[in-house]
Design brief:
Layout lengths: L2 H18 L3 H27 L1 H4 L6 H18 L6 H7 L37 H13 L24 E4 L2 E4 L14 H11 L4 E6 L2 E3 L3 H8 L9 E3 L5 H9 L5 E6 L7 E13 L5 E12 L2 E12 L8 E5 L1 E7 L9 E3 L35
Parallel strand pairs: 3-12, 9-10
Antiparallel strand pairs: 1-2, 3-4, 5-11, 6-7, 6-11, 7-8, 8-9
Helix pairs in contact: 1-2, 2-4, 2-5
Length: 383
């Protein structure tokens, strides 16, 4: 008898029991029992495939110990969240209020407005309240086994990763957010794309740059240069360079503020960008320029996007630190801002944009290397 036939028969029995009962608790328990059964069956198949070593050997009593391992692992995995089937089964069994489960997928294609934090577990480090909590929840949604590698240099992004629905009308047609027209930015570093997309999804303002074919996010070098005079165009964020690490981290822990790091490259190498979760230290020179910053946060690197702990950025000439990104000509700290009530979260920095081609219609895709503007995705040394 296959796992599928056993599961189908057991599910039918549990559904009949749930429908025959008058309480939601019995239906919830039936859903949990079925998920536990399925987890146990899948674990048994995996253990048998791995052979005797995983079962503790092939000697006397191995069968009994193998069965005990199956039960223990199934119980542990189910308590840890299982396969996520129980809430769906609750809805199928007619449990009242199951439709409002916090495990429902988040629609990231919808326009973003300021809102309450997503009710999800912390994506990586210690749970932080308020503004940075929204970033943690967004990271949990973005850093999936499928999507996280696509943010690497050789990854090919889709509208699942760059989900903005921003568009404007031009004399030659509609300009949409540039994804397919840029061939998914394959072969390019995507630190700026990842950082700004994460910020946008979390409900903060982001700047947009016009491209040959549609809209995109500005390059780290451009953002860093824009922040040098202490103010950003269109005030999409606030320059926080000069503040102490203690003040910034206290504001993060208090849920009051959230931050982005941007750095300019030198000697032909591109800059870099990161979203901040916590700040450990910041060193300034005598002129108030950032020499070094140590932080926890998220970046897109050559192999994909991931969470980083005690990551060190150094300005050119500065050495030392853990997991170092060095050689930056300048580093700026940007405070993220939520849009005003009813205002859009995407703020174009210029109106001179070209119409989309592939991003406008479902037409056959061809290679358009000529429209992959060099300022859209980063290029240069690995971070």
């Amino acid at each position: 008898m296959t796992v599928g036939s056993v599961a189908a028969a057991q599910l039918a029995q549990l559904q009949q029991r749930a429908q025959a009962s008058s309480g939601d608790e019995q239906a919830r328990e039936a859903a949990k029992q079925f998920e536990a059964l399925l987890v146990r069956k899948l674990w048994q198949i995996m253990r048998k495939t791995a052979g005797d070593a995983m079962a503790g050997g092939a000697g006397p009593g191995a069968g009994m110990y193998g069965h005990m391992m199956d039960e223990a692992m199934a119980s542990h995995l189910t308590e840890a969240g299982g396969l996520g089937l129980a809430p769906q089964l609750e809805r199928a069994f007619g449990v009242r209020g199951a439709e409002a489960s916090s495990t429902a997928p988040v629609d990231f294609d919808a326009p973003r407005t300021p809102r309450a934090p997503l009710e999800l577990g912390p994506a990586t480090g210690q749970r932080v309240a308020g503004a940075t909590r929204r970033l943690q929840a967004t990271a949990q949604q973005m850093l999936t086994p499928v999507s996280a590698p696509r943010w690497g240099r050789e990854g090919r992004l889709t509208r699942t990763e760059l989900a903005s629905d921003f568009q404007t009308q031009t004399p030659a047609g509609i300009a949409r957010f540039n994804v397919r027209d840029a061939a998914g930015f394959q072969g390019r570093y995507k630190c700026n794309l990842f950082a700004f997309e994460m910020v946008r999804r979390a409900g903060f303002q982001v700047p947009l740059m016009p491209r040959t074919r549609g809209w995109g996010y500005p390059h780290p070098d451009a953002v860093t240069a824009d922040a040098m005079d202490g103010r950003l165009r269109r005030d999409w964020g606030r320059v926080a360079t000069g503040e102490s690490a203690e003040a910034i981290d206290a504001a993060i822990r208090g849920g009051e503020r959230a931050f982005l790091l941007t750095g300019a490259g030198r000697d032909g190498h591109a800059g870099h960008m990161a979203v901040v979760e916590r700040v450990h230290s910041i060193r300034y020179d005598a002129e108030g320029r950032v020499e070094q910053v140590v932080f926890d946060g998220w970046e897109a690197r050559v192999g994909g996007a991931r969470h980083l702990e005690r990551r060190t950025w150094n300005r050119y000439g500065r050495r030392g630190g853990h997991d170092v990104r060095g050689g930056l000509a300048r580093i700026e700290i940007i405070e993220l801002l939520a849009p005003r009530e009813g205002a859009p979260g995407e703020l174009p920095l210029s109106a001179r944009v070209g119409p989309s081609v592939h991003d406008a219609e479902n037409i056959g895709e061809t290679t358009i290397a000529s429209v992959t503007n060099s300022s859209q995705g980063s290029s240069g040394i690995d971070r």
